[in-house]
Design brief:
single chain; 664 residues; alpha+beta
Amino acid sequence: MVFLFSMLLDSACFLVILHNTIIMEVNNNIIKTYIERPIFRLVGEVADTLNRECYIVGGFVRDIFLNRTSNDMDFVTVGSGIEVAKAVHKRIGSSNSTLAVFKTYGTAQVKTRSGNELEFVGARKESYRHESRNPIVEDGTLHDDQLRRDFTINAMAISLNNDSYGKLLDPFDGIGDLDRRIIRTPLDPDVTFSDDPLRMMRAIRFATQLDFDIYPETMQAIARNAKRIKIITRERIADELMKIVRSDSPSRGFDLLDESGLLQLIFPELQALKGVDNSHGRSHKDNFRHTMQVLDNVASNSDNEWLRWAAVMHDIGKPATKRWDDNLGWTFHNHNYIGEKMVPKIFGRMRLPLNEHMKYVKKLVGLHMRPIALVEDGVTDAAVRRLLFDAGDDIDDLMLLCKADITSKNQEKVKRFRDNFDLVKQKLVDIEEKDRVRNFQPPVDGSEIMSTFNLLPSRPVGLIKDAIKDAILDGEIANSYAAAYPFMLERARQLGIEPITMGKLAYTSIESPIGSITIAATTKGITYVGIGEGKENLAQISKARHLDLVNISTNVIDNCIVQINQYFAKERQQFDLPIEIEGTIFSKTVYDKLVQIRYGETLSYSQIAAQIKRPTAYRAVAQACHSNPLMILLPCHRVIASNGSLGGYRAGIGIKKFLLDLEK
């Protein structure tokens, strides 16, 4: 029996030795694959020339065994790292590399033209004071340097000296911890985390990024030392949080922060979402767990880190708004608006950027209930327009966030919401194609309102501008200058305000590819566009309408000039201008048909007569076209004879042909 046990023991030992030998060979092959790079040979040769030990250490070594590549490399030398860096820089050459020396920290960086970033530091040992994470540094050996590393998987080193090139030095079994997928400290974790509390955040960040577990003893030490995080700057904490948020499954990081007790210290508003209250036999869902699910839903569909932050904070206002209602149960009314107000304060305290990224998160938190409300209340065009206007270019991100927010154990409810949600998305597409509301600026802005009515910045200007915006969003008028301008006039009239050109016929002339064009306008809009015609026609118009003829330009005329120039440059096919037409009912009916003729197409006088149900009145149609007061804007040049000839044109057949050729 003893003999049999001895044989079994020997066999077991042999298998362990065989296993370790195989692992060692595998590791050596992996190292050889990565280490045979010219830059490593060069650094090793330089170190040998200086008679220095030199090793590549840290994350690069760890990532070799995780099959991840990087051009950022950390080197430890026994002695001056700066001296080795200078020699490496000299060897590579100034034309192919740059050198930066940081004497205060005893480090130097060499950047090569090929994209490598080489960091050099001398091996050192560290000791800490309780009130600071900044160590007292002394020169040390490689082993001293490995002892000061945060985790076993980051404490491995590979020799670059010729006599031991490629040898792995792994005193704390980092390879084993990689294989076991655990985060563990090389030394007593209480000492490690008390000395440098940022390492607690790094442990959780690495566990999240690598999908590793934190060794139980290490996790317990984090919990015991959590309050030490207070000596760490908020910027460093924010940097680690950003890396957690960018990971594939960021909820894991926040769960570990919560489990360790760190979350309530660095992000109490998020920790406050935890828990479920009961009243009258009814409970609400755990809003922390819901937030984590929403975060992972977003992360699986987008790499946008600020959209992920919006997911983290979308329900941040719920604890402050939680109420019991006897009729409705648990409610969180206006939690989105409360959360929106909380975002800047949280970003400021956590030292997250207070720039457009904060504004983006703030906006999405404030808007995240709107698409769901459309599903529940009915999808009206006006509500969709307002959502498009308020969300602007962020509408797609908002919709992604809101779809991620649909979480429930009731799968029928989830399916119903998602089906309705898809209807909202399609409605958004349809409204945007039709009304161009996303990021729109009202066609009439504040400066035009002020110049039209000779106003200074004042409340009436804001009232008129807001009225135009609301009328467009509510579908009362089209999102066009032609519709917004007369609306402005009417709203101003209701306020007792008149345009400064009231009672005047303003005009000006411009040069164009077809000669001089005269443009005239009343306060109501463009009333005359003549090609190669003089002031006589304007005098007749002003006399007939009892208007003063003045040679000035107005906003309406300026817009007309811009659009006519765009037309000749083939940048515009349709005009968007308010117009005022004087004429008979018949001629106005004809003009209504003219604007319906598509760019580049033609109709005959007979066809127009048939369309207005006056088939025999084709001669009258021709006369109306000849009398057209708004040439080009009302495209009478697109009307030809039934036999295909061009017919007449007040400005001449040559100009008519030019315009038709232009439109081809």
